[in-house]
């Protein structure tokens, strides 16, 4: 195996960890390196049917409240209980989904069916209200209606019939429907986050591939061996990751539905974190060799590889595709210090994007195409920020001892990332792209390297 000489070079922590795993625990941390929507009849586990309770309200007013307006004045919405037991659990999940965005102000209400009395809701200042109910045990039926309180009319009405095990997903789907109908954009509640579950000591942690719902529920450990740098496919139930199951680091693809995994080729060097193309057909993989690293495009079906950068000794890492697949943003120290660059997805010349002070680390392109998320260290302080794709408008959202591995949710409104302190204790957080509503996601063990799934299908 070719050794990589980077003792005085900069790499994001998770990239450096991957190299350290391959070459031994030689302290390759950033600080030391720096010297100081659901279709009708769509299937779920056990099957699900979604049936309109009345005709879709095509003549109902379109969303008149934008996300930016809701940030300033959260939408007051009444959500009563869906009933006892599982019904109450559904109520709580929907309430949490909406409240955690900071875009909704959830108001309690009395359970009811049929057309609500809008006068009390108007007096409460509510703009919208939900009515619904839950019935059944093995097979359950969840009815849900969304009402425009000011106009006094139904916006949405759907009944979901499914296996009782799917109640949490039904709650997330209801939350997504409310989000989309009120704000005019798709929600992101019925999604999952892949990540690395960390346990053991700070210097020799056990790191296993895991997946959970976006709110931390239903966490599952997927691997027993050391894994790092996961990436969720944008189109299917599939996670690519770097595995140390053998003496040679390799890229694997794990199918969540079947539990099967397979190796994606071998590399003449040390592969680092993979990133999917928007259509899910290929990966771009940094491969370290000698004193630098280059980016390779790898076809998932055939394993065919094509080099798309020529480093000349520079370190090129942290690639991310634009939503249309035409460009790649990545980190490179070709200019002397780590900065962000953009190039054609087919390779060729790269244009420097970032010119701020300090060293840039991770880069990730929003699925909306309007922003690029990044990490940066300056003056010993780590920062998470966003900028426009032309490099303008750079702004910092949060800072800390270590913040890394940003990943956008499917609608581009929230970033997941990893935060840790001087004594370790890595945890996964989320933050709105404006820099508000930072929250920790509960995980059974420590968590790092989050990667957000597409909306579940």
UniProtKB/TrEMBL annotation:
Domain TolB N-terminal residues, every copy: 64-155
Entry keyword set: Cell cycle, Cell division, Periplasm, Signal
Top-level taxon in the UniProt lineage: Bacteria
Pfam families, alphabetized: PD40, TolB_N
Gene Ontology BP, a term: cell division
Entry's Gene Ontology cellular component terms: periplasmic space
Location in the cell: Periplasm
InterPro entries documented for this protein: 6-blade_b-propeller_TolB-like (IPR011042), TAT_signal (IPR006311), Tol-Pal_TolB (IPR014167), TolB_N (IPR007195), WD40 (IPR011659)
Biological role stated in the UniProt entry: Part of the Tol-Pal system, which plays a role in outer membrane invagination during cell division and is important for maintaining outer membrane integrity.
Subunit structure and binding partners: The Tol-Pal system is composed of five core proteins: the inner membrane proteins TolA, TolQ and TolR, the periplasmic protein TolB and the outer membrane protein Pal. They form a network linking the inner and outer membranes and the peptidoglycan layer.
Family: Belongs to the TolB family.
Name by which UniProt lists this protein: Tol-Pal system protein TolB
Organism: Acetobacter aceti
Lineage, opening ranks: Bacteria, Pseudomonadati, Pseudomonadota, Alphaproteobacteria, Acetobacterales
């Amino acid at each position: 195996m070719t050794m990589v000489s980077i003792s005085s070079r900069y790499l994001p922590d998770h990239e450096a960890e991957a190299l350290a795993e391959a070459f031994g625990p030689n302290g390759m941390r950033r600080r030391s390196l720096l010297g100081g929507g659901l279709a009708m009849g769509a299937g779920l586990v056990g099957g699900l049917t979604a049936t309109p309770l009345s005709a879709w309200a095509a003549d109902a007013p379109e969303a008149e409240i934008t996300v930016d307006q809701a940030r300033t004045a959260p939408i007051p919405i009444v959500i009563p209980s869906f009933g006892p037991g599982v019904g109450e659990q559904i109520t709580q999940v929907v309430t949490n989904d909406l409240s955690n965005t900071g875009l909704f102000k959830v108001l309690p209400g009395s359970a009811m069916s049929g057309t609500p009395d809008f006068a009390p809701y108007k007096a409460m200042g509510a703009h919208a209200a939900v009515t619904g109910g839950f019935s059944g045990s093995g097979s359950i039926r969840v009815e849900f209606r969304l009402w425009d309180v000011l106009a006094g009319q139904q916006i949405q009405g759907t009944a979901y019939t499914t296996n009782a095990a799917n109640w949490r997903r039904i709650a997330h789907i209801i939350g997504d429907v409310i989000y989309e109908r009120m704000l005019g954009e798709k929600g992101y509640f019925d999604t999952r986050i892949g990540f690395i579950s960390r346990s053991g000591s700070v210097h020799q942690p056990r790191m296993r591939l895991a997946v959970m719902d976006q709110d931390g529920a239903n966490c599952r450990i997927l691997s027993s061996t050391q894994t790092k740098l996961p990436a969720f496919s944008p189109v299917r139930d599939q996670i690519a990751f770097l595995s140390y199951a053998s003496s040679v680091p390799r890229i694997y693809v794990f199918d969540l539905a079947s539990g099967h995994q397979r190796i994606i080729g071998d590399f003449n060097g040390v592969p680092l974190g993979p990133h999917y193309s928007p259509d899910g057909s290929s990966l771009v993989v940094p491969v370290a060799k000698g004193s630098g690293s280059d980016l390779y495009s790898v076809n998932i079906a055939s394993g065919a590889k094509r080099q798309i950068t020529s480093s000349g000794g520079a370190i090129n890492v942290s690639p991310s595709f634009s939503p249309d697949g035409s460009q790649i943003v990545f980190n490179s120290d070709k200019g002397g210090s780590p900065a962000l660059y953009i190039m054609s997805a087919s390779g060729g010349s790269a244009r420097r994007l970032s010119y701020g002070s300090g060293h840039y680390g991770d880069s990730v392109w929003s699925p909306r195409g309007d922003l690029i998320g990044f990490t940066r260290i300056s003056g010993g302080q780590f920062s998470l920020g966003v900028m426009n794709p032309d490099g303008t408008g750079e702004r910092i959202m949060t800072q800390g001892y270590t913040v890394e591995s940003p990943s956008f949710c499917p609608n581009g409104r929230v970033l997941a990332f990893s935060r840790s302190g001087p004594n370790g204790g890595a945890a996964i957080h989320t933050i709105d792209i404006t820099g508000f509503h930072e929250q920790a996601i509960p995980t059974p063990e420590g968590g790092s390297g989050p990667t957000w799934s597409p909306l579940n299908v």
